[in-house]
Amino acid sequence: MSEDVSLIGSSEAGPRYWRDWNDDYGAPAPVARPRTPAALVEVVRRLSKLHIPMVAQGGMSGLAGGGAPEAGEVVVSTELLRQIEDVDVFSGTMTVQSGVTLQAVQEEAERHGLFYPVDLGSRGSCTLGGNIASNAGGNRVLQYGMTRASILGLEVVLPDGTLISRLSQVVKDNAGYDLKHIFIGSEGTLGIVTRAVLRLQPLPRERVTVALGCARLEQVLKALVAARRSFGPALTSFEVMWRDFHSFVTRELGIGRDPFNGDAEFVVILEISCFDSDADRDRARIEDALAHMSEDLGTDQVVIAQSLKDAAEIWRIRDASGEVARMLGEYLSFDISIPTSRLTHVLGVIEAGLQDIDPGLRKVTYGHLGDGNLHLLVACTAEFIEPVERLVYGAIAGIGGSISAEHGIGLSRRTALASALPRAEIEAMRRIKAALDPNNLFSPGRVLDMARALSH
């Protein structure tokens, strides 16, 4: 290997490189850390010639085991590819290497008066390559979409070391197949991202954070309709925390401060982006709209953050999902999408089913309800895993939802995916994988079981 590649032996690498955030998968493995995109291509070519399987890693903040190495694999880490290569204020784009953190991108965009809208609680550690590989969602999908919507161009190395470089900076590009969409969300099974062109947005003059207390889920859904009608595209976030979540965070973990002192069954966080040059005029419109919403919904539990500190205190509760998971002990994590109109029914089925399995099962519920993405954590031991998974995934089947909204499939949901999708769809995915990675060298065993496809 060249001097542009830092190598770490499996005995020296440690858990940092072989355990993802959930700590459920992983094995000691050697690590190759390229310092340039060209060096990453060289690493892949050499390992490919030796038929050595590889797994790509970014910030290791994944929750599905996709970046954790299995025995016999080599880690290809992008953590040294940290350069922000270009910001074009005229086209509203930023060209970055794949190891740049999300927070670094957000801060660089703001320095140029622009805004990168994707936002996650792990912003300080997750990388753009990982965001792209998992098609990360987060807190602002309601207005700006998933990561896919913010990618204009990609540079990707294929499993045989071939480099595809289409770093397009234009929004309109219909020259042939749009190959970037094959790699976005493929979880490193088809290619490793080396560089990307990001689409930036105008920077809001201000973001107003509002906490809204509701007594019933039906009231929450009415609040969503009212907020969309009142704020339109200015509504960038609509986050919901059930009592089992916000009480756990504020009372048991002592994180943040409950704006309603435990009186609300649901705490909704709204983020409203303001672009008016007159901040007072924007605020007055928001306050007037909230007053009407409060009256129509029959709740006086409305708190408008008066400072950045107040806003951070409200968001701190929502961002504590990682701490909640760590304190639950043994648990199952569900990252599901449910059509909003079916939410009340589906949750009723799940809650009743959990009671039937074992009344002592503890659940924690929160999510990006504006886009139908719900996170459900169920504390349970091994004996309950199979019935709980059957219950939750069974409730999703047939309603047009998804078993994975934003966390990906990785190793943890591979079996569930095979059951959730029609056979023809799974077979089409296998054909794409076999075409781009015939030797099954990139992240083998993640997302799809290729043993059957390769034996034919």
What does this entry look like structurally?
With 456 residues, the chain is α+β, with helices and mostly antiparallel strands. It is built from 17 helices and 18 strands. It has helices at residues 10-13, 15-18, 37-49, 102-111, 128-134, 141-144, 180-183, 217-231, 243-252, 279-297, 308-318, 321-327, 343-357, 382-396, 414-420, 423-436, 451-455, and strands spanning 5-8, 31-34, 54-57, 74-77, 84-88, 93-97, 114-115, 151-157, 163-166, 192-199, 201-202, 206-214, 235-242, 266-274, 302-304, 331-337, 362-368, 373-379. The strands form 4 sheets. A 7-stranded antiparallel beta sheet has the order 15-12-14-13-17-18-16, with helices on both faces. A 5-stranded antiparallel beta sheet has the order 5-6-10-8-9. A 4-stranded mixed beta sheet has the order 1-2-4-3. Helix 8 runs antiparallel to helix 10 and helix 13 (343-357) runs antiparallel to helix 14 (382-396). The radius of gyration is 22 Å and the shape is globular. The model has no long low-confidence stretch (mean pLDDT 91).
Task: Please specify the SSE layout and strand pairing.
Blueprint: E1 5-8, H1 10-13, H2 15-18, E2 31-34, H3 37-49, E3 54-57, E4 74-77, E5 84-88, E6 93-97, H4 102-111, E7 114-115, H5 128-134, H6 141-144, E8 151-157, E9 163-166, H7 180-183, E10 192-199, E11 201-202, E12 206-214, H8 217-231, E13 235-242, H9 243-252, E14 266-274, H10 279-297, E15 302-304, H11 308-318, H12 321-327, E16 331-337, H13 343-357, E17 362-368, E18 373-379, H14 382-396, H15 414-420, H16 423-436, H17 451-455
Parallel strand pairs: 2-4, 3-4
Antiparallel strand pairs: 1-2, 5-6, 6-10, 7-11, 8-9, 8-10, 12-14, 12-15, 13-14, 13-17, 16-18, 17-18
Helix pairs in contact: 8-10, 13-14
